[in-house]
Design a protein that fits this description.
Elements lengths: L2 E11 L1 H16 L6 E7 L2 E4 L12 H7 L2 E4 L6 E4 L3 E7 L9 H18 L5 E3 L2 E6 L2 E11 L2 E9 L19 E2 L2 H5 L5 H16 L1 E5 L2 H10 L2
Parallel strand pairs: 1-2, 1-12, 3-4, 9-11
Antiparallel strand pairs: 2-6, 3-5, 6-10, 7-8, 8-9, 9-10
Helix pairs in contact: 1-6, 3-5
């Protein structure tokens, strides 16, 4: 590997807390306080709305969302509305694109490749759909992608449906796309999927695709370094 970076492995986290952490880490990366860093985690149930909007694509009312325990957040990532929740593996890279040709489109293709290769390891053939971000298996989306870039340092990322509560997707028009569905690894493989194994493989593929040796970092240590960024 020609580069070295950090990997922060977390459990199931509240979206707003991790959004604030990403913002701090983005600043720390821009200042050179931390190296390229990848966060792997799951989220508590929520819908997030990107720069393209999408509140109108949330089909459930406030009372139903409260009953289902689903929060709603507005973010600065690209894209429309999407769902996050337990059973969905999320990858948030905090990457300085100055080391990757300052090419946001090429960066997005690399992220998609990480997911495609991860799925291939588990026997799922996935690919891209022209005009539609993310990763697809036939006409169904298995991984959503939404990217943010500040001064050439990335935020947000990709979310792979391993074994989430699929009925939650019926409460939105995912990514604002009404004519295609969503799927998960568990649905396609028709058996339980080990989230820990998927995490290990995604981390391995990320290292390969981005040529980056990832070292474990403790959450408190990374937050301490992020606090130094101000």
């Amino acid at each position: 590997m020609s580069g070295q970076g950090y990997c922060l492995e977390l459990g199931t986290e509240e979206y707003g807390t991790i959004l604030r952490l990403q913002e701090s880490l983005n600043m720390a990366r821009r200042k050179g306080i931390i190296p390229d860093t990848v966060i792997l985690l799951e989220h508590q149930p929520c819908f997030t709305v990107g720069r393209q909007g999408g509140f109108e694509h949330i089909l459930a009312g406030e009372e139903l969302l409260r009953q289902q325990g689903i929060a709603v957040y507005e973010t600065d990532r690209g894209g429309d509305v999407t769902y996050h929740g337990p059973g969905q593996l999320v990858c948030y890279p905090i990457i300085d694109l100055n080391g990757y040709g300052r090419d946001v489109h090429a960066y997005a293709r690399r992220l998609e490749r990480v997911i495609i290769l991860t799925l291939k390891h588990f026997g799922i053939t996935a690919g891209r759909k022209p005009g539609y971000p993310g990763v697809w298996v036939g006409p169904t989306k298995i991984a959503a992608e939404g990217i943010g870039v500040r001064h050439w340092v990335t935020m947000h990322g990709v979310a792979l449906n391993v074994c989430p509560r699929m009925h939650h997707f019926s409460l939105i028009i995912p990514c604002g796309i009404a004519n295609f569905g969503v799927t998960s690894m568990e649905q396609l493989l028709k058996h339980p999927v080990d989230m820990a194994a998927v995490r290990r493989e995604m981390r391995r593929q990320f290292s390969e695709v981005f040529d980056l040796l990832l070292e474990d970092v403790a959450p408190e240590e990374l937050r301490r370094m992020a606090d130094e960024a101000g």
